[in-house]
Specification:
The complex is a heterotrimer of chains A (244), B (165) and C (392). By secondary structure, chain A is an alpha+beta fold. Chain A is built from seven helices and eleven strands. In chain A, the strands form four sheets. Chain A has a four-stranded mixed beta sheet, with no helix packed on it. In chain A, strands 3-2-4 form a three-stranded antiparallel beta sheet, covered by helices on one side. A two-stranded antiparallel sheet of chain A has the order 5-6. Chain B is mainly alpha-helical. Classes of the chains: A alpha+beta (244), B mainly alpha (165), C mainly alpha (392). At the A-B interface, helix 1, helix 2, strand 4, strand 5 and helix 5 of A face helix 3, helix 4 and helix 6 of B.
Amino acid sequence: MTVSRRHLLALLPAAAVAWKYVLAGTPEESPNYRMDGHWWGMLIDVTKCIGCGNCVRACQTENNVPDGFFRTWVERYHTTDWHLEAPEVISPDGGKDGFPSVKQGEEGKYFFVPKLCNHCADSPCTQVCPVGATFIAPDGVVLIDPKYCLGCAYCVQACPYGCRYIHPQKKVADKCTLCYHRITKGLTTACCEACPTGARQLADLKDPKDPIHEFLKTHPVQVLKPQMATGAKAFYNGLDGSVR
Amino acid sequence: MNAFKDAGHLFRFLGLFVLAFLLFLVLREFVVPKSFGQYGHYRGAAIGEIGSLAVRFAGHQACETCHSDIADTKSKGKHEQVSCEACHGALGAHTEDPVNVVPVKLDTAVLCARCHTASAAKPQGFPQVDPADHYAGVSCETCHNPHNPMTPPDSGTSAAKGGAK
Amino acid sequence: MTGVEGYIYPNEVTLYWSVLIVLYPFITGLVAGAFILASLERVFRVEAVTPTYRLALLTALAFLLDAPLPLQLHLGHPERSPEMYFTPHATSAMAMFGYIYLWYLMAVLVFEIWLDYRRDIVLWSQQTTGIRRLIYKIMTLGSSNISERSLHIDDKVGWIVTLVGIPSAFLLHGYVGFIFGSLKSNPWWSSPLMPVVFIFSAMVSGIAAVLLIYMALTKMRGQKIDIRCIDTVAMYMFYIFIIDFSLEMLDLVHRIYEADESFRSLDFMVHTRLFFSQIVLQILIGTLIPLVLLFIVQVAHLSEVARKRIYVLSGCLILISVFAMRWNVVIGGQLFSKSFLGYTTYKMGLVSKEGLLAAAGLTVLPLCFLWVLLKLLPPWPEKRALQAPSGD
């Protein structure tokens, strides 16, 4: 496309205004965003994930995730028989640079499972924080207050899904924030933005117009480790029984 | 009272506790952040602080404000739901200063291969090729318009022609 | 990734709770155990153990003063630890630490020691000079009343404090067991037995520690060890150890029998990564050998010398065993992945903030505290303050 200079002169200020709007304000005070009007979650379609690793890289870029730690990652499963309890799983560097190719004709089935913080409605991690440094916000996102956290790592131990870690430089707990700084401005999360197949989609469970409601009515969905009764809000379509 | 006379030391010990407790109450007023407890057992101001963090991916809607013709091309093809930054990377800085911050030209050999290299692990219906078999050595955009991949790279709507300049 | 076997969640490669978190329950366990020994004399009137009464209290205090230090070194932001006092989160067992610790330190241990020593403190404040005099004077809180009636009141109040101290000691150490036992995310830890096992092993370790310290110090002072005392202490140590061992075996048998989804992974871990610390150190060397030896002492008639040697050996092995148990719980609980598909390894540093040297230093430090306390508040009968002839 060629944008002529005249076009640019007209569009630049428009873009600038759009950008300022994007960056504006504090969400709980912004007149356009009301915390009580949202209940955030995510829909992950295992049947669509191609293991490209875009989401992992996008998250690392958007959120300055330190090397060797992951706010989101992708696992690749390989199951060969009926013994669901012993799949072969790999996640090379969290799936950041994709996965090695599998030749056609290999026995068994393969699939990719993106994982992230499930932003549990009954989260065991917020339950154990000794000081109130991690909490579930009124709009359903589990957040960490880096200025208040002691770095005791109790929450890291309490999470059944392994999605938390202690930031090696900041020495506080860290994890996926569901790109809170984006979703409160009408943007989607970085991982959803970067996903080329629509395997990851942000869902607002309180918004009647959100397509997740229709999806939940027409597809059997699962959450990770349902026996933990965490109220996980990351819903998976097509989750195999072998997924740990 | 006789009993209290011989228990005076106990009251002194108790007094230490009372003093410490009062000191604690006073200290608490100064130390606990003002927004603590606003929405729950946490510092309410943390929500705003987290919400104000820097945005790096602009989101496809911001791109479409200026690059509407590319968006149009894309909407007609197989890459319709692939957002701009999925390939072009984080471009928040570019929206802020479109003239001086120019996105890096992409290397299709690496980029396209990332998603489309054939692997039995990928879902069945997903378009995949083995790069060694499929015109090895020829760059992808020679035949495919990245914005509408099943169409040839014809008019000015392809990256091969130089992009938004 | 070096040290990783099978598949683990990417964030699980690093262990977040280090050897310092192994040390902390070990230390508070010694505190609780030493206090229980002291309460045997005070509340349950087991008069035979009287020679260890004051020493047990001082040992408990020495270790209690050291207890917060491993935690402070572990925290990413130790300067924020007062937040646990100002905004404790009621649903968190860890938040209770600050208050339980303070309660136990001031309202139980310091209070009880003060009440028991008060007569001596007042007399020493009048008989010594210099800095020591000042310290004692402060400790009297300005009251020099050591009339019979006031001492009688002290005795009665002290009895109540010890009585309250027993559940307090259980709370001080039991809550640590609860911190682990209440986490549904970790099947190695999650168990209602955890606080109970912690408490019983704490009692054994605390009694063993006081036994060893008493024997060592008495020898160093050139005094005669009260054989009836250590026979009684060792007897209690033996019986409590049986209960502790039974509880741990119950947990093991229950796990093996139920064989839930975590069992295969945990079983493999115990047979490989934890083989030396759990099977060899904790169970075979640290539990079975002391139990057999102490059993022999109970049923056979051994000479005093033989008994003393057995008590020293058993005491040392018990301390090793209880430390190994804490290691196996804390480190073991982080070596396996919550995916049950893999394992990682613990890389303990040497000179780092949470490394081996730090742990060793913090284990030795309470002995230094004890040394100071022994100088300031000597527990030995011959060191009791003598009333001046013209005294009240």
